[in-house]
Amino acid sequence: MTEAATTDPAVMLAVALDEARAGAAEGGIPIGAALFGPEGELLGRGRNRRVQDGDPSAHGETSAFRAAGRLRGYRRTTMVTTLSPCWYCSGLVRQFGIGHVVIGEARTFHGGHDWLAEHGVRVTLLDDPACVALMREFIDARPELWFEDIGR
Description:
By secondary structure, the protein is of the alpha/beta class. The chain contains seven helices and five strands. The protein has a five-stranded mixed β-sheet with strand order 2-1-3-4-5.
């Protein structure tokens, strides 16, 4: 079953949040992401799989980006993520010219989204309570894993 196309940020965030919850259920870091096309079609979805795959580069945004496959251009795409993107994932957005980033929350981690906005990326910060709660619960339960993920 394919998901209906949407340009509603809250509906797009639900896809990323499903991925984050799946990651948590697998014992991983609960960060999910999805890449949407210009008309709101889902191109790829993914979750942070650093723990599950033993791969430090398997962040939610990179997983969604890889799942989308090659495109001729990314300017009209939207990357949706449950948490403000780290510098690594912010670099991916800039490198490939993704035009819009929708962020579930930036309370538990303020990544590179200000830098993205300064460089012409449209940023929508939703401050979603479910995203905040998911990350706070994880950080409280697994602080060592969280600090490893953010490089502290």
